[in-house]
Amino acid sequence: MELFCSQDPTSKIIPLPNHHTRTHIFTRINTRVTGPGGRRRGSRRSGGLVRAEVAAATALVEQTGGKMVVELVGAFNELTERTKKVQSSSSSNILFKSLKLSLPIFHTLPLAPDGRSSLSKALSLALLLADLQMDAEVIAAGILREVLEVGAVSIFQVRDRISAGTAHLLHESLRVKNISSKVEDLDDESAVALRKFCLTYYDIRAVILDLALKLDTMRHLDYLPRYQQQMISLEVMKIHAPLAHAVGTNFLSLELEDLSFRYLFPYSYLYLDTWLQSHETGSKPLIDIYREHLLESLKTDSLLAEMVDDVSVKGRHKSRYSTMKKLLRDGRKPEEVNDVLGLRVILKPRSGVDMSDVGARACYRTREIIQSLWKEMPDRTKDYIAKPKANGYRSLHMTVDVSECCRTRPLMEIQIRTTEMDKLAVGGTASHSLYKGGLTDPEEARRLKAIMMAAAEFAELRLKDFPFTNHKGIEIDHRNRVFCLLDKNGDGQISIEELMEVMEELGAPGEDACEMMQLLDSNSDGSLSSDEFDLFQKQVELMRNLQDKDDEYKIKLNEKLQMADYSGLIQVYS
User: Fold this and answer.
1) Which InterPro entries match (predicted)?
2) Which residues contact 572 (CB under 8 A, 6 or more apart)?
3) Among 35, 79, 229, 401, which has the highest number of CB atoms less than 10 A from its own CB?
4) pLDDT value of position 317
């Protein structure tokens, strides 16, 4: 596509690079020309002036400096939106400096073997760590991991320019990376020993970083020949998936197990996945339908409302791998597995003299409400409230048949507990998770759990100085953090010198700052106010959202087109 500025005597043909740029330009013009509600203002502005803005916006996206700043702002905002652990000024600085250091290096690196750019790969890992609510040092280490491995920066440079903690995590993660090379044969006994070794001698945050990197790798294995897919998957199944469970990152362990299962036993995976998919109806997952239905019924019950202040319902699907293990171990048919679907009801009893008694009565009332919604399977009900387990675990378990008159559904397990019971359950499952990670001694498991928790709390405390504030001491939201980080003298404006400085740090020519300032400085005072910069951030967010949509549609299209290849490997599909 080309644009011809006919009314300008110096007009020339300006190429518009892609639809993201076009949308960005339109947003810029629309914001300037229209007022609230879409009413046009300044309609007498000449078409030549509008076209000049189009040319300037195009130049910003095409120039090196403008593109770098867009990537810096977009990546920082997305990461801070998705984690609660980057709230202090020191945490934000660590994350911001790691992005500034790595972005220019990423642009010099070739595509990864799986076809992704180095920047895309690093941000995928960083966002995964942010979703796990890891602290800024772990996320920064995830961003810098690849630039360190290719030799673009050293551990000492990371220590001097980012933080000593980030450098330590990178060093530890490289040690964890080669853990499987410590044994010649990866049998069950050596796998257990390796997992115990990791839990004992490595920084737990470095272990989680390596697990997140392994999951990112597993999500993009299709480019490898099948024998390599199976070798990697076997290692993940024996070492990394149980290790992820042991450190309490169940989200990682479940997906690692399912992906390994898919590559190791593609036909079994396809059989089970097809059966599970056959029960879904429409675009909304069954578990979400049942969760919302139950939550509404609980919140509208007057008797329960008298006993509790709050009700929450969580839902989960049993993983493909766990379902297959149960089928093989017990010799069941798929329809006989009673916890393929699962809900957990957590009740917060009203404050009073005997909260324990009120909580127990609320649990039993919840059971009565569930019985009115679905058919209970009495032989599968377990009352751990009346008869707690030896370790103090208390909860009410029941299994219900959610089949409809014309369609059968998998059985659904429902757990009912109070907030206090849930806290105890989480603490009690720590030993169980470590046991699955390879520790059979309960005392040893508890000791290691205490060490893991202490290490995580110490790291969080060390980075928790003060909430992020501006120069007037007013607490600000995540969107204004980038502005404050660029406004180094704290005068409430980003000057051309400050903009040139960040451009040069990103490896772009400082002259690009003048062009960017001209585009964003709407009142032409030679600096950027927080409002002007916020408008720019909104445009960046729109561009990133469009790119995400494009990626989503591309994945869906590929899923429609992909089929099982001749080797028997089953591609991922919806």
Assistant:
1) EF-hand-dom_pair, EF_Hand_1_Ca_BS, EF_hand_dom, HD_domain, NT_sf, RelA_SpoT
2) 262, 559, 562
3) 79
4) 80
